[in-house]
C-alpha cells in the first residue's frame, strides 16, 4: 500500500463524518437492495405500498439539512418551516441553479477538502452548466434493479453507447470504443463513442456491436437511432439476443423508438435522471411510462403558478434528493417538463418527459411557443426520412431546419414540416441539408439552438 493512500485512510478513520457516512452507506446499500427487490416484486404484481418509506426518507433529509446546512437552517427559519408539518414542505422555496452557484458554500454540509466527496458537473444543456459536491447515490443499485426487470443475469455484458472520449492512439486504428473500469459495469463494461460517428465508419460501429454481443445496451437515443437506421437501411441481420436497450440522457421521439426496436429486435427501456442524482425514473413496458423510484428522491410536478399540477397536466419536474448528505438539494427545479400521471403506492408517474422549460421558439411578436408542443407527441412522416436534425432560431418568427436526410427525403417532407410549424405557431421554416451536426462536449445531440436572447 502506498504512503499517500495510507495517510488518506488514516485521515478518514479520524473523521467522524466519514465514519458515520461509511457505516450509513454500507448498511444503506443492503437496505436499498432489499427495497428494490420489493419494488421489482410490486411491478410483477405483488402488493406493496411505498408511500410511508418515501415520506420517512423525505423527513430524514429535511431534518439533516435543517440541522447541518447553514443555507437550509436560515431558509427554514425565515419562512417559518416546521419540517414535522407535512404541508410546510410545500412552502419551502424552490432551489435553482443560480442559487446553488451563489450559495454553494452555505448549502454544503461537508467541506470540499474532504477526499471522500466528489465534485460533479452537469453538461449544461440549458446553457447553464452547474458544479456541485456529492457523496454519491444509489444509482448503480437502481440500474441493476432496472436491468433485472428486463431479465438481466450476472455476467451479462452491458454496452454503453455514449459520448466517451477515445484516446488518439485508438482512433488512429479506427477503434471507437474503450474498456471501462469495473466501477462502471452497471453503466457498461465497454463504451462505444458517439463522438466519432460518420456515414463512412458506421459499418465499423456495427461490426463492434456484432463482435461484442451485448445483452443490454445503454445510451443516447440519437446515437443508437443513427446506428439502427444504418442496420435497417442495409438489411443487416444482427442475430443477437439483446434483452433490452435503455434510452437515457436525451429526449427521444416515437419514430426513434420504433427504429431502434425494429433494428435490434428488442424491448426499449426509458431511464430518466440527472447528474444531480435526485430522481431515478424508469419504464417497465412498451408504454414507456416513467415511474420515479420512491427510494431515490421525492418528485413533484409544478405548474407556472408554483402549485402542483393535476393528473394529465404538464409542469416542471421539481425534485428532492434523499442521498446527497454532502450538499442536499431540496425542491430543486430541474428545468424538465413532464405530464403528471398521478401517484401510485408512493410512486410518482410521469406520462411524458417532453422537454425543458427553456425549449421555446418565438413568434414574430415574441410569443413563446413550447417546441415540444409541435415536435413531440406528433408523428411526422418526414421523420422516417431524416437521419438527424437540429432546429436553429436566429430571428423571431423564423427557424432553420438543419437536416441530415436519407435518400427517401422529398419535397413533400419539407412541405409537411414547414406547414405544420406555420399552421400551429405561425413560424416560417427554412431548410439546410448538411452532412454532419455538431455534438455537445459530452457527445449528445442538441435539438434546439436558440440564439434569441430574452
Write the layout of secondary structure elements.
Layout: H1 3-13, H2 16-43, H3 51-68, H4 70-78, H5 97-107, E1 118-121, E2 131-134, H6 139-149, E3 158-162, H7 168-171, E4 177-179, E5 190-193, H8 202-212, E6 216-219, H9 221-233, E7 244-247, H10 254-264, E8 268-273, E9 280-282, E10 290-292, E11 297-302, E12 314-321, E13 332-344, E14 347-356, E15 360-362, E16 368-370, H11 371-374, E17 386-395, E18 398-405, H12 411-425, E19 428-433, E20 448-450
Helix pairs in contact: 2-6, 3-4, 9-10
**Low confidence ranges:** 9-23, 123-128
CATH superfamily of the largest domain: ANL, N-terminal domain
Sheet/helix structural class:
alpha/beta
CATH architecture of the largest domain: 3-Layer(aba) Sandwich
> Would you tell me the overall average pLDDT?
85
Labels describing this entry:
single chain; 454 residues; alpha/beta; Rossmann fold; GMP Synthetase, Chain A, domain 3; 3 domains; twelve-stranded mixed β-sheet; four-stranded mixed β-sheet; 20 strands; globular; ANL_N_sf; AMP-dependent synthetase/ligase domain-containing protein; CapK_Type1_Caps_Biosynth
Description:
The protein contains 12 helices and 20 strands. The chain folds into 3 domains: 20-140 and 274-356, Rossmann fold, CATH 3.40.50.12780; 151-266, Rossmann fold (3-Layer(aba) Sandwich), CATH 3.40.50; 360-450, GMP Synthetase, Chain A, domain 3 (2-Layer Sandwich). The chain has helices at 3-13, 16-43, 51-68, 70-78, 97-107, 139-149, 168-171, 202-212, 221-233, 254-264, 371-374, 411-425, and strands at 118-121, 131-134, 158-162, 177-179, 190-193, 216-219, 244-247, 268-273, 280-282, 290-292, 297-302, 314-321, 332-344, 347-356, 360-362, 368-370, 386-395, 398-405, 428-433, 448-450. It is globular. The longest helix is centred in the N-terminal third of the chain and has 28 residues, at 16-43. With 454 residues, it is an alpha/beta fold. InterPro entries: ANL_N_sf (IPR042099), CapK_Type1_Caps_Biosynth (IPR053158). This is AMP-dependent synthetase/ligase domain-containing protein.
Amino acid at each position: 500500500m502506498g504512503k499517500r493512500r495510507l495517510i488518506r485512510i488514516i485521515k478518514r478513520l479520524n473523521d467522524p463524518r466519514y465514519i458515520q457516512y461509511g457505516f450509513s452507506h454500507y448498511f444503506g446499500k443492503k437496505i436499498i437492495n432489499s427495497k428494490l427487490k420489493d419494488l421489482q416484486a410490486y411491478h410483477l404484481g405483488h402488493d406493496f405500498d411505498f408511500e410511508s418509506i418515501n415520506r420517512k426518507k423525505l423527513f430524514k433529509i429535511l431534518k439533516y439539512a435543517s440541522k447541518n446546512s447553514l443555507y437550509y437552517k436560515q431558509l427554514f427559519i425565515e419562512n417559518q418551516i416546521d419540517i414535522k408539518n407535512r404541508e410546510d414542505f410545500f412552502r419551502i422555496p424552490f432551489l435553482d441553479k443560480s442559487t446553488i452557484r451563489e450559495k454553494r458554500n452555505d448549502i454544503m454540509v461537508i467541506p470540499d477538502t474532504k477526499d471522500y466527496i466528489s465534485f460533479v458537473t452537469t453538461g449544461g444543456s440549458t446553457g447553464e452548466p452547474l458544479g456541485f459536491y456529492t457523496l454519491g447515490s444509489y444509482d448503480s443499485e437502481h440500474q441493476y434493479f432496472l436491468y433485472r426487470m428486463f431479465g438481466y443475469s450476472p455476467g451479462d455484458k452491458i454496452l454503453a453507447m455514449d459520448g466517451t472520449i477515445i484516446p488518439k492512439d485508438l482512433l488512429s486504428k479506427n477503434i471507437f470504443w474503450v474498456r471501462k473500469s469495473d466501477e462502471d459495469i452497471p453503466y457498461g463494461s465497454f463504451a462505444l463513442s458517439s463522438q466519432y460517428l460518420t456515414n463512412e465508419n458506421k459499418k465499423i460501429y456495427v461490426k463492434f456491436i456484432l463482435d461484442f454481443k451485448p445483452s443490454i445496451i445503454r445510451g443516447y437515443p440519437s446515437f443508437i437511432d443513427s446506428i439502427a437506421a444504418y442496420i435497417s437501411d442495409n438489411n443487416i441481420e444482427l442475430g443477437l439476443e439483446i434483452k433490452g436497450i435503455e434510452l437515457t440522457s436525451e429526449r427521444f421521439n416515437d419514430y426513434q423508438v420504433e427504429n431502434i426496436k425494429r433494428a435490434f429486435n428488442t424491448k426499449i427501456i426509458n431511464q430518466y435522471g440527472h447528474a444531480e442524482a435526485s430522481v431515478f425514473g424508469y419504464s417497465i413496458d412498451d408504454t414507456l411510462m416513467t415511474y420515479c423510484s420512491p427510494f431515490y428522491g421525492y418528485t413533484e410536478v409544478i405548474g407556472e403558478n408554483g402549485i402542483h399540477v393535476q393528473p394529465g397536466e404538464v409542469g416542471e419536474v421539481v425534485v428532492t434528493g434523499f442521498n446527497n448528505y454532502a450538499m442536499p438539494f431540496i425542491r430543486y427545479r430541474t428545468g424538465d417538463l413532464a405530464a403528471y400521471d398521478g401517484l401510485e403506492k408512493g410512486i410518482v408517474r410521469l406520462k411524458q418527459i417532453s422537454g425543458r422549460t427553456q425549449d421555446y421558439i418565438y413568434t414574430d411578436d415574441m410569443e413563446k411557443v413550447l417546441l415540444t408542443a409541435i415536435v413531440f407527441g406528433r408523428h411526422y412522416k418526414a421523420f422516417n426520412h431524416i437521419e438527424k436534425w437540429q432546429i436553429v432560431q436566429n430571428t423571431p418568427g423564423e427557424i432553420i431546419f438543419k437536416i441530415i436526410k436519407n435518400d427517401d427525403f422529398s419535397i413533400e417532407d419539407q412541405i409537411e414540416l414547414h406547414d405544420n410549424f406555420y399552421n400551429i405557431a405561425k413560424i416560417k421554416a427554412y431548410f439546410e441539408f448538411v452532412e454532419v451536426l455538431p455534438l455537445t462536449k459530452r457527445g449528445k445531440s442538441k435539438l434546439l439552438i436558440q440564439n434569441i436572447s430574452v
